[in-house]
Predict the 3D structure of the following.
Amino acid sequence: MADVMEKLVSLCKRKGFVFQSSEIYGGLNGCWDYGPLGVELLRNIKELWWRAMTSREDIEGLDSSILMHPRVWEASGHVENFTDPLVDCRQCKARFREDLLTDDQRTAGQCPVCGKREVLTEPRAFNLMFKTFVGPVADDSARVFLRPETAQGIFVNFLNVQTAMRQKLPFGIAQVGKAFRNEINTRNFLFRTREFEQMEMQFFVMPGTDAEWFAYWRQERWDWFRQIGLPEKRLSWHEHLGDELAHYARAAFDVQYEFPFGPGEIEGIHNRGNFDLSQHEKVSGKALRYFDEQSRAKVLPCVVETSIGASRTLMACLAEAYHEEQVKGENRVVMRFHPRVAPIKAAVLPLVKRDGMPDIARQIAATLRRRYAVFYDEGGAIGRRYRRMDEVGTPFCITVDSQTLSDDTVTVRERDSMAQERVAAEGLGAFLEGRMDAWQHPDEAAA
Ligand code: ATP
């Protein structure tokens, strides 16, 4: 299965999805750049999440700053607790997270890189926050952190948003943005990086109703993964129990996706109780209470959090989409993205470069571009052009041919089935919309 990862990383580079950061300088570990197709894919995922959240009357959006007052991270517990146990190999000098060693390696003190036994140091707590300074003097009083999560920007703005929008409990605040973690080991392509994007939503509820809302949001988030094209058979829940439960959480479930390298968390759903607001009240000295008109009392809300990595979700979409099959004795690589997620929605292709076909095709492309990312391609045999689009996951290829000249119809070739049908050029927009909504994962459609 590691083979699939290699093929995916190579396709991502070749086709302009993802490049290594600062590649010409040898790269920077744990950082990646999104190329022309990758950025469309990432934007689509973020947009689908943003719409799912903020099209509701009970959720507001926010974009808070990356640098925040350093006391935020004292209140949140990150200064003290946001650590991983770091061990060193005395032999080969490699460094790892102690909690990711196997039981055998831990007991034998065995290094997972060089294989030597009794060479590991005792674990020490390593704080994952990146530190920097505001202003010209690099002393302790000017020290700030790059945020390791977007959630704290939401907590400190809870009352601002509530008052500005006259929201009543329960309501949520959603935010998409960069987060930074100085991970000890970066692994598995986009899965664990040092700079990544999160999409977080904190749902503020009346105390005592948190367990109910926690169950509600677990279901909502599961359904969303299904809507972006991840099949049920590769999704699973992982419940945090005992020591695994973070300092802030009353209960926590992860949604896991079955990656080629095994199951990995893509989203955490947490019942945080009133931990965050009470901490910020304590440390800032400012009341963060909500006035409940019914009871005429000020209450400290509880929070249910949904915290998802945009880049990890993108990685799940890439892994899910990658498919190889034999077609007429040839290997076909096809990225079977959900059409709403696919970076390019349609390609418009004149069958030949004459008889006015390119002009008609360009006109169709221009009309569709008002709504979608569209690719125009007139180079090479039509079969080869189809294959190029399959490889980047374009769900529809629209071909202008000689029949178009007489009756204004085009053929639409569907990526997964490769079936073609004739459609009036005028009705293309509505046709594509209908097909995108009706799309089913090929494995599920076949079942
Ligand atoms: P892990 O146990 O994998 O380190 P976590 O439990 O610390 O993750 P959370 O703090 O719950 O993760 O973060 C919420 C989401 O943010 C995760 O589900 C994941 O999608 C994303 N995320 C966290 N760390 C990274 C990272 N280093 N690279 C990419 N995405 C990340």
Remarks:
- The first strand starts at residue 18 and ends at 20.
- The chain has three domains: 2-70+131-317, 83-127, 344-446.
- Residues 36-54 form the longest helix (19 residues).
- The mean pLDDT is 95.
